[in-house]
Amino acid sequence: MYQIADKYNVPGLKDLVIEKFRRSCGHFWDDDLFPAAVRHVFSSTPYHDKGLRDLVSATLSDHLDLLHKPEIEALVVEFNDLAYGLLKNKSGAGWRMWV
Question: N or C terminus of the chain: which is more exposed, having fewer CB within 10 Å?
Answer without folding.
Answer: C
